[in-house]
Model the fold of this input.
Amino acid sequence: MGVGIRHAGAEDLPAAAALWQQLDAYHRSLGLMFPEVDNAPQLWAENFQRTLGRFSFLWLAEQGSDAVGFLMARVKQSPAYLGGKQIGEISDLFVQPAARGAGAAAQLVQAAMQKFAELQVHSVEVQVQAGNDDGLAFWHKQGFATDLTLVRKRL
Done:
C-alpha cells in the first residue's frame, strides 16, 4: 500500500505525538542528553498547538488511515546581528521503519520546503542527532549542507 502525504491540523497532534515518541526513543538510543519527561509527547504537542498554522506546520504520512510518519516545521527569526531573517526549521521528521523506502520522508520534506518557499524564508535548518549517520546522509541527499556543529556538556 502506498503512502500519502497531507497537511495536518491540531486534531492530528495526538497521532503526531505518538510518532514523535518513537523518534524520541530513537534519539535517546543514540545518546540524547536531555532528561526523560513522563508526559513528553503531550508536552511536545502542546508546544506546537498554539502556533500551528501560523508559525508551525505539520504534515502526516499515512498508509490507509494509519499515520506512519510526520514532519513538524516552524518559522523563526535569526538575531539582528545575523540579519534578522526569517528561517525555516524542520524540527522533527520521522517515518516508521516498516513504511520506509517508499519516499515518504522525501515527500514530507518536499511539502515543507514548498511551504517555506511560499513564506520566502532565507534558509531552512535541521538538527541531526549525533550518531544518526543515516539521517545525516538523508539530509545531504535532500540538498542540505553541514553548516554548524553543536557540542554539549552535561553539568
Notes: The chain has one domain: 4-141. The chain has a mean pLDDT of 96. Strands lie at 4-8, 56-63, 66-77, 86-95, 123-126. Residues 18 and 91 are 16 Å apart (CA to CA).
